[in-house]
Amino acid sequence: MADAKSRVAAKEQAPELRVKNFKEVAMGYNEEEAIAEASRCLECKNPRCVAACPVSVKIPQFIKHVKDADFLGAAQVIHEDSSLPAICGRVCPQESQCEGSCIRGIKGQPIAIGKLERFVADWSREKGLIVNKTTVSNNKKVAVVGSGPAGLSCASDLAKFGYNVTVFEALHVPGGVLEYGIPEFRLPKSIVNYEISNLEKMGVVFEPDVVIGRTISVDDLMAKEGYCAVFIGSGAGLPKFMHIAGENLNGVVSANEFLTRVNLMRAFDSDYDTPVYVGKNVVVVGGGNVAMDAARCAVRLGAKVTVVYRRSEKELPARREEVVHAQQEGIAFQYLSNPVQIIGNAKGWVEGIECVKMELVPSKDGGRNSVVEIPNSNFNVSCDMVIMALGTSPNPLISSTTPGLKVEKWGGISLSDPSGETYRKGVFAGGDAVTGAATVILAMSAGRKAAKAIDEYLKGISCN
Amino acid sequence: MFKIVKKQVLAPSVFLFEVEAPRVANAAKPGQFVIVRARDHGERIPLTIADYNKELGTVTIVVQELGVSTKLICNAEVGDFYVDVVGPLGNPSEFLHLDDSTLKSQRFLFVAGGVGAAPIYPQVKYLYGKGASVDVILGARNTELLILKEEIKKTCNNLYVATDDGSEGHKGLVTDVLNYLITSNGKIYDNVVTIGPMVMMKFVALCTKKYGIKTIASLNTLMVDGTGMCGACRVSVGGVTKFTCVDGPEFDAHLVDFDEAMCRLNMYKTEEGKKLKEEEEKNHQCRIGRYA
Ligand SMILES: Cc1cc2nc3c(=O)[nH]c(=O)nc-3n(C[C@H](O)[C@H](O)[C@H](O)COP(=O)(O)OP(=O)(O)OC[C@H]3O[C@@H](n4cnc5c(N)ncnc54)[C@H](O)[C@@H]3O)c2cc1C
Ligand SMILES: Cc1cc2nc3c(=O)[nH]c(=O)nc-3n(C[C@H](O)[C@H](O)[C@H](O)COP(=O)(O)OP(=O)(O)OC[C@H]3O[C@@H](n4cnc5c(N)ncnc54)[C@H](O)[C@@H]3O)c2cc1C
Ligand code: SF4
Ligand code: SF4
Ligand code: FES
């Protein structure tokens, strides 16, 4: 058993095994382990962890229930603030949120809050104990656009309030980034599917294959199909490129393309028809969660992978756990390096990438260090595939086809009120579509906030 | 699920389907496309909307069997269902913005190769209906592979045919006919629209550039999502990277880097791809880098 300073280790698939499969890496706590870890919690009166959780999950309270082996009680406490705990427990950047502020972390390891949250959520799901109440319908229709965490949580609360909710999704399966971006070995799709089937049981209707702005406009949803309000949770799906020479060579892809082929289209499975090209030597450009996911998928498909990142290890924006896992899986990191061009062969395929060394320059105002190129420090890395993981921005499809909607210069939908109201009456928005690429927990909380705002709005008007 | 209500053989390995997809039919405009998945584990395949009927809620696609996925689409029969039909995707044709009186004074030439005849059909029909002058050159390997010839003939001013083997019309390339019409026949066109194999569109573009005629090409790049999310469909147009699915599929043909586009289209077909395919067949478990 662990001493009070270090956390109870959670079982993981060994690196040499897991690089050959797509099964979940972290196996999670069992009941004894969860109780032991929970017992480390000091039940702080002014819990710093809660202040650092974007949705203020009542952490000491749920942990107390775990300590007492009352897992259902714990689940009920978590559900008051989070509608997707099995997912957030797995993918939240805990080290910079709840766990990063835990008092236990000052002299030792912080409480494994994410792992405990995951345990509680998995336990109640496996026991089938969290059943969402169905409410009597109020016969008002609300449309939700996009089925990522923002859309799912908005739909869930709206259904609980009694609205008839239809979720429109451009792709052929719901889930958003949870489905097409984050790989199976981090977030099993069975968990996402469970959440979706729960919503279906509550009466939420999913209509896939509908691209709002193309198949039907927001205006027509309201004017012709009788939706009293619309929530836009369309995410930030447009991949960025660097606009350097050679970027359109064969073998250069966005992380979104690579991950979509692998996760959504299941190209790694011989039963599926979609192909994916994987090089022998793959360079991934970027340092966020997306870069880690692409790198780790490539490793599992047999590649040798190098991550090229402009700053140093300290600045990697990815979740710490994923960086450690990536390193354990044999992925090399080339820090303080930035691509200047991609080199191709006569057949139009990538054969290398030219980078320049970078240097961190402390910022004068104490903000984030900036990086500058070191002149004449160029070097080549040979490779037969480059995956660009440079971030994403919101798709203009909806903003450009919805009169009255205002957008920021960079494409994010502007809100007229922090609750999620946009400048277009009856239209609400939240998640990455508003903030730009952010986190699952923030998207979820934006979806819930907007559901409340929609309820307020619709209580005040007659509609049908 | 999207029900197939009509199937017709247009040529060996080229089929026409009418599919029930009311939302798509209601919003469709000439120049746009759909993405079809034939079955649950299927690939997302982009196909141009060849026609649509808002009353019946159907869209028409014309598909050529090439690889695994188009074969699956073509094997479907009336009464069967495609699991997904999403659209309409891409931008409608540019000329839809032109008002009727402008259209009446415009002279269009369409140059289509192979199944490219299908996507030009709704455009030709629309323009001819608006009183524009519309000529069409249809090219194919042989007379058997010429599709929709009778339909197109009825809705245009002049139809010219070119086949590789001379089994019908001019023996040779569509660009031979194009050159002939302009230099020897004294034809004048304000707009050329070309749809077909990349290599054909490349040479049509080179040819019309010589004569300074504005030319539009509809690009059939590789695609995955068709909504701007992946960048698989990127092409260089005037030195700028564009996503075919959201910025296109129609572009100014004189600005398209066709050599790059052809190279990218072969991404799953090159030597590397073949090698990977052999490897795949050896261990038979994974189809990384599969090519058909
Ligand atoms: C690879 C990857 C890894 C990540 N890892 C983490 C992590 O570990 N932890 C974390 O907290 N966050 C992570 N993120 C970020 C997180 O996933 C996102 O912030 C979150 O999913 C945003 O949720 P959302 O609901 O706003 O949008 P999304 O999840 O992007 O969902 C938007 C949905 O809307 C659909 N849509 C878009 N346009 C239309 C339209 N016109 N009509 C209909 N539907 C439309 C899209 O197809 C999509 O399904 C990761 C992101 C990626 C890409
Ligand atoms: C906007 C758009 C509209 C299209 N409209 C039509 C249409 O109306 N009718 C039709 O039959 N086809 C159309 N295509 C092409 C069609 O999508 C491809 O033929 C199809 O994806 C091939 O899939 P496959 O799995 O059967 O073949 P694969 O196994 O993927 O490939 C078979 C062969 O076809 C080549 N190929 C792959 N993709 C394409 C492509 N996009 N264009 C040309 N060759 C390709 C491959 O290099 C390979 O040699 C369109 C493509 C786009 C992007
Ligand atoms: S939701 Fe995320 S930040 Fe909040 S307690 Fe759970 S894991 Fe921590
Ligand atoms: S800060 Fe740490 S120890 Fe204190 S309540 Fe939160 S989890 Fe428990
Ligand atoms: S097909 Fe994915 S962005 Fe165009």
Q: Whole-number radius of gyration of chain B? A: 19 Å
CATH topology of the largest domain in chain A: FAD/NAD(P)-binding domain
Q: Number of DSSP helices of chain A?
A: 17
CATH class of the largest domain in chain B: Alpha Beta
Question: What's the average pLDDT of chain A?
Answer: 93
> How many domains comprise the coordinates of chain B?
2
The chain-level structural class of chain B is alpha/beta
Count of β-strands of chain B: 17
Ligand species: flavin-adenine dinucleotide, iron/sulfur cluster, FE2/S2 (inorganic) cluster
Q: Could you say what the CATH architecture of the largest domain in chain A is?
A: 3-Layer(bba) Sandwich
Q: How helical, in percent, are the residues of chain A?
A: 25-40%
Spatial ordering of strands, largest sheet of chain B? 12-11-10-9-13-14-17
In N-to-C order, the SSE pattern of chain B is EEHEEEEHEEHEHEHEEHEHEEEHEHH
Strand content of chain B: 25-35%
Taking pLDDT < 50 over at least 5 consecutive residues as the criterion, the unreliable ranges of chain A are: none
Head-to-tail CA distance between termini of chain B: 26 Å
Rg of Cα set of chain A: 23 Å
Largest sheet of chain B: 7 strands, mixed
Structural domain tally of chain A = 3
Task: Using a beta-carbon cutoff below 8 angstroms, give the protein chain pair with the largest interface and the number of residues from each chain.
Answer: A-B, 48 and 51 residues
